[in-house]
Amino acid sequence: MSSAMTSRAVALRYVGNLLAIVFCIYRTKGAGTTYGNLFVVTNLKVIGNHSDPSRLPGQVEFFLYTAAADGVQVTVTFRNATVQSLIILPGVKNMNQVSANPKLFSFEKDLARKSVYVFKGSGLFGLCVLIMQSYAEDSFETFLAIPVDGWGKLYYLVSLESRVSAQFVTGEHNSTLTVLLRFADRSMVFKYHGISYGTGSNLIVDLPPWRAFSLSNCDDNRLSSSFTGTYVRGTSPFGVISGNCLDGTINVLCDDPMLEREQKGRQSVLVEMLPPLEQYGREFIPVLITGRTSHDYFITVAGHDDVNVTFFNKEDERNDYYLKYRGDSLRITLKGGLGMLKSNKGVLVMYVMRSACFGSKAEVGGPSFCLIVPNELFYHTYTWSTKTSSLPLVVLSYICIVIRVSNIPQLYMDGEFFKADTTWNLVSGAPEWRAGHAMIEQGNHLMKHTSGSPFGLYLYGLGHYSSYMHPAGFITSSINAVCHTSPTVPGDLVDNDCDKRIDEEIEDNKDDDDDGYIDEDLRDTPVGGASGETTAEIQIPGVVNGGWSVWTEWHCQDCLDTRVFRTRDCNNPSPLEGGRNCYGGRLEAKFGQCYTEITCPEDCPLYYWSSNCSKTCFNCMGDCRKNSGVCERCVSGFKSPQNSCTTACEEYEFGPNCEGDCMAKCDDDCFNRVTGECSDSWISFRTLVPALIPIIIVANACIFWGYHKQKQTLLPTGESKPSRSWTLYTAISSEKIREMLAPWKSLETPRVKPFEDMPPDTNLFSSRTTFSTTESQV
């Protein structure tokens, strides 16, 4: 036997063993979950390195599973020809497997346009995909297929840097795809039919029904570039599988996890089936795999412009990020703990398990992709299967549960309540949430919440330099698109009240989500477990469940509503350490006679408010709110817009809203609370008079002295009898001086007497003194 044949035999035996690892997920509901009756999956380009003939092509295996008691008949077709027809049955021993034959694809001339496998069932079933790479013996990945009724028309791609790959598949309808390429390295191009397409290029692809298109650089051994943020839109729904044919992450030193090496660590295939834009969420809890030295990270992709992202890391430290344009992405490293991620608009979150750290053989795990499910799309029941056999590598399987701490006691798994000794980790920024990990044995498993409360579930496995990870399923209903309210049907998996949440109400005639509506978006009737099961609560140390206070008195609340209301608060006691919130609503209403004979505030004229327009807000800058009297701002001299601007500015304040600072402007208090004028800008009477008195005295003394001096010089020596007398007037008359000096009686008032024998036109004083002639008799 030749060495080539020996190598082929060894490889096939290895593949056969590896196929025994199966991760099959299903949901007990059909429409709106990852459990359906029609799936389409293409041959993935990642299955082989065709440019290297010394390597065997990889392998793709499909595993089918159902919860239907009578089983489901499934027909598998390829190019309109039936490949296999089988009946899948429930139960641990009824594992159903279909292999994708690589030879079927070798006849396709266009490597970009491919045929597809179509799985049609008579009932609901789940489809799991296992991909094995030929580049390395420990390179494999799993992902959960999304049924056709969970597809959409708009996606954003996600990948790492090397050998990127994306597959687009159609169902029974053709779809014209528009691909707006976006590479991290702007020099990167994708070549198709001799044409190069780079960042910003539009690639138009017409796909007929039941076909696939591959956007891939798998055969390029050179380091390529991530296409995260590439925008793909179709004229009808289609499916997307995105990832890398072979890649790893820049690993870290085991002795110093904060220090990255320049080269990448162990590489593997990474792949995930992506949800469409309408399934992007706003709240996420990125899982954290414990027991690894390497710090894993997650990628967040914006589905809209102007996205604000907040992530709480260890010790509730808040980190804010901004994504300006749709398709923009950011990478956040998980260091030391779980945290809540929130955004104001829909985003896609992908968890990246890093390559094993460098410098230790004890590190487990390797590169893997995992979709992080929005909290809004958690479900309440999951089933999966894990089955292993003797393999060249050992892979241990685990589950990660993300759940509200108040719902842990009702968690049910494999016929009994979930073990209470599981370690539940806190979630920074969301004290009501916990995440717990548990190792699971091979076989089939069922986990559900007995009251129908949703929770998240992830499956992962760790081997030496290898790993896998994917969600255990999710609701595939729209939470990020134009919404119209609709009548509710319990468990219809529809956002009936358009609040971006699915089936959040319990049918109890109460407002369970505190939105003012009762039973408007109902979940399933609480499901039971095994016969005789109870829901006795498990006490968790430090956790305090909330309790209601007493009801308030019935009272009127809204002038346009004649009903009376009463309220209560969840503070007796308040929930602590993530304890359960109070069950039921905080508000009740009944028919009444409120506001039937009064004028409602909305009908009040300008600057009047309250019932019967009994209150005013004249000091508001513009009209106030009619129910509360709150103003936007106050006019100068007044403050407290929340109280109708009824408070005048106090000491050292002035201006609109009393925001002016007298000390900063005047170094003292202001003279005017409206304008902020300082006190030294006004000359008061008390200040003016004492300042003028000495000036007046000196001025008049000078006048008299100058007059007498000139009189001796100017008067003639001879006698004369003037027919006129000259009267002296100063700029400030004697009468005015008397008025100004009236408060000070002790001061003598200066006088100016008429002088005789003065020649006409004689100027005795400076220009500040004037003369007037008057007729007088001597």
UniProtKB/TrEMBL annotation:
PANTHER family: IGGFC-BINDING PROTEIN N-TERMINAL DOMAIN-CONTAINING PROTEIN, IGGFC_BINDING DOMAIN-CONTAINING PROTEIN
UniProt xrefs under PROSITE patterns: TSP1
Gene it is expressed from: LOC106067928
Annotated region (Disordered), positions in chain: 504-533, 752-778
Record-given protein name: Uncharacterized protein LOC106067928 isoform X2
Residue ranges crossing the lipid bilayer per the database entry: 688-707
Alphabetical UniProt keywords: Membrane, Transmembrane, Transmembrane helix
Membrane found in the keyword field: yes
Domain IgGFc-binding protein N-terminal: 142-461
Low complexity compositional bias, start-end: 765-778
InterPro entries from the UniProt entry: IgGFc-bd_N, TSP1_rpt, TSP1_rpt_sf
Biased composition (Acidic residues): 504-522
